[in-house]
What does this fold into?
Amino acid sequence: MDGLSSNSVTASIQHPIPQPGAVLAELRRHWGPQQALWIFGYASLIWRPEFHASEQRSALVHGWHRALRMRSRINRGTPERPGLVFALLPGGACRGEVYRLPAAQAEAELERLWLREMPTGVYTPRWLPCRTSQGLVPALAFTLSRRSDAYLGRLPDAQMLDILRHARGRYGTTLEYLAQTAHALRERGIVDREIERLMALAARAGLVQTTPAAARTAARSASVSTSISTPGSSSSSGKAG
It folds into this structure.
């Protein structure tokens, strides 16, 4: 298997670790900069990876699901009006993309990725076994604990719409972030029922326009029988992976 040994595939960087720098040091201990590094993307890392990968594959992760449940006070909101971003939460399954960073560039690319994803250490990075059409690969993924102050439970639709209407941060609005993720998943044939539900909610409120392709995807998501879900989760299924 490329990268980590099979014994360390499911090893996590144990939480809590006080500083992002300490988490990165632990990551390096498990990984070793002389090896290629795999990264699992499930939201913005799909449509804005900002690193140079030598290989990209569709992938499926079991035991975690993508959810718009992480409070964002900088990137997609402000302290006064927080927005939301996606995180990997325990339970269910998630389809996304894995990226292979070659050993020669992995260290530099990891530094850049760390500045983007871990400036405050809110995520818990973990090595997750990702199933691809070419076999299992251990990939670094950014997960969120339900004990985190940044975690929000399932919001009423009225509160979600208020966030989608008003939350804006240094990288844009929560609505734009949601729509870009929905578009990227649709392009890859991934049906995420909760994302499609949220997009339909936004469309009914007049916040976005529903294209014919989006309408077809939303209709498929309502009848998908192969989605792996947990109560209140945004489950993922589809052609990819």
Notes: Helices lie at 20-31, 44-47, 103-117, 157-166, 174-187, 193-204, 212-223.
